[in-house]
Amino acid sequence: MTEDELRKQFEGKDLFLRGGYLDNTLTFNEHGVLIGHSPQGSYTLSGIRIEKVRLLKHKVELTGARYALHFLGALPSEDPTTAVDRVNITPKKREVRITIDRELVVKPKQEKGKAKTAKPALVATAPATAPALNPAPNPATGPAPNIDPTDAQEAQIEMAAAPEAERPADAKSVAATLSPAHANKVLEDALGNVFALGFDERMMASMPGCWKLYYDAVAAKGDYQPADSNVLRQNMVDKRARLKSTFEPGSNEFAQDYGVAGMSEYHVVVGADGKPGEIAVARPIGFGLDESAVDSIRKATFEPAVKDGKPVSVLLNMVVEFRIYSKRTEVESNPALEQASATPLLPGPYSVQH
Question: Is the pTM of this model over 0.90?
Answer without folding.
Answer: no
